[in-house]
Structures are given as structure tokens and as C-alpha cells.
Amino acid sequence: MKLSTKHLLGIKNLTTQDIELILSTATQFKEVLQRPVKKVPSLRDITIVNLFYENSTRTRMSFELAEKRLSADTLNFAASSSSAKKGETLLDTVNNILSMKVDMVVMRHSASGAPHFLAKHIPAAIVNAGDGINEHPTQALLDAFSMQEQFGTLKGLRVAIIGDIMHSRVALSNIYLLGKMGAEVMVAGPPTLIPKYITAALGVKVTYNVAEALQWCDVANVLRIQLERQNQPLFSSLREYNLAYGISSQLLDSIGKKITIMHPGPINRGVELDSDVADGSNSIILNQVENGVAVRMAVLYLLANHNNQS
Ligand code: CP
Fold first, then answer.
1. Global model pTM greater than 0.90
2. Which atom of ligand 1 sits closest to the CA of residue 265?
3. In this structure, which residue's CA is closest to atom 6 in ligand 1?
4. Domain 11-135+289-309 sits in which CATH superfamily?
5. pLDDT tens digits along 64-102
6. Does domain 137-285 have CATH number 3.40.50.1370?
7. Which of 122, 155, 162, 268 is the most exposed place for a label (fewest CB within 10 A)?
């Protein structure tokens, strides 16, 4: 089995078969990661650059570890300490790195569409590690893997995505993926953080009442308030946001049923999610992080395989 695509730019253009192939391959790599020797030689002839133009903890380390577990050679690029600071363009930077015989590019960028632009101009395979407010495909894949692990299937699962939908690439990738895999999605949060196109264009349910979303869902995927992307105030204060839209144990107790809690991280504790919920027994937040390594191993392995055979 092969992926239908040379790059992983987003979930939007993946087929259901692509998603199933990535998730089943990740299951095999998760088994590898339970062994005493957590390493396979699959990508020992491949060199990968991790090109991060925006800050990251989980995604950058998870990709680097996935590459090392697959025996690839890795290079790490942080824009803040690079010649990008002297004005070098993205394309010049990447072409210079590729001339050192690098095979694949993992890229995070604050500009939506940056990896799509790059894919038109370079021969190497590109993995989008998050582009602006557009997509974060490996986050949606690891979220799906974690939900599938918990519930056995995504089909018919009710997932509430709660918080700053407007600025979230995680929301969009999850909405695409869950729709393709037969899950139901409801988004919840303040009206100012839910874009108007979301119901008509993407077919998701919308509520501005978080309790209603919690009543409805099996899983609550709680998103970070992204203050760094908000040019003007979109709610009155963080304290009031927490009171109206934050997930607390009191609120969950009042709903009276088990809801699996997810968050892509980093968490604003006490804003969108209270600490006792984030660290509670229904939280799978650290399972998501653990699963990210196996999922990214699967993506890198399948893309390398696709590009070797074609
Ligand atoms: N979930 C996520 O993308 O986290 P980082 O920004 O730390 O990579």
C-alpha cells in the first residue's frame, strides 16, 4: 500500500485510505516503541531537515525523535538563529539546505500556505508541521490515533472542539479528518472565535454554549487561546473567558457523564482548561504526545516509500 501523495501538506487532500494507512502503520511503529531497542533501520539512507520558522516544543521534538527511531540523519533549523534573520528568503534557505543532499523537509511556518508554496518550487518531499491558521496534519493524525486507541473506531464518535476555532490549524485539520472518517464534530466557543464559514463549508455543528457541547460529545478536544494571533481583543478578559468557556471539574461534574479530554498543547492552565481536568483520569493529553512519535514515524516512512517507488 502506498500514499496517494508525495507531500503531507494537509488533511484536506488525503483520501480515507491514506488516513487508514497512516494510522495502521503507526500502530506497528507504536509496537516498535514498546521494545527495549526502539529503533528500526527503515530510513537509514534518508536525511531530513526540521525547518522551524515558528516556536514548537512537542512537534519539533516528536519529529526529531521519530526520525532518529527510523535511523534517518537529521538536521535542525531554527529561524531565530539562522540567516533568515539577515533577510535570506525561504526558498533560498531551502535550496541551500537541499544542495547538501537533504531528502525531506519538515516545516513549520507562521504563514498559511508556506509549505504549499515550497512544494511548487522544490523537488524534495515536504511535511507540514503547522502553517499559520491553516492546517496541522500530523496533530490531527495523532489525535485520531489516540481517539481510535481509546474507542476502537472513529465512526460515529462525537467530538466537540472547544475554544479558539478561528486561529486554530488543529481545528481545521481535525474537522477534515473526522469528517472523512465518519465521526461527528461540534465546535464550541465564543461567537467571535468561531468563523462564520465553518457550518456551511465544513458541515460541523456550532454552539456558543460549552455545556451543550459537553452534553453532546464523547470527546472534548480543548484548544489553546492563541493571543499571539489576535490583533484586537476578541473577548473581554482571560478570567471571563475561563468563567464562560473554560473546562472545569465542576462543569464536567454537572454534566454527569464520562468525557475524554484532549488538548494539543501547550495548555493555558486556568484559561481554557483547569489543571485538575488536564491532569485528571479522563485526560489523554500525554497519550496524544506519546502517540505523536509513532504517527510521525508512519508519515515519514510512508512518504519516503512513496517517493522511492515513484
Ligand atoms: N501541539 C503542538 O503543535 O505543540 P507545539 O507548538 O509545542 O509543537
1. yes
2. 1
3. 56
4. Aspartate/ornithine carbamoyltransferase (3.40.50.1370)
5. 999 999 999 999 999 999 999 999 999 999 999 999 999
6. yes
7. 155
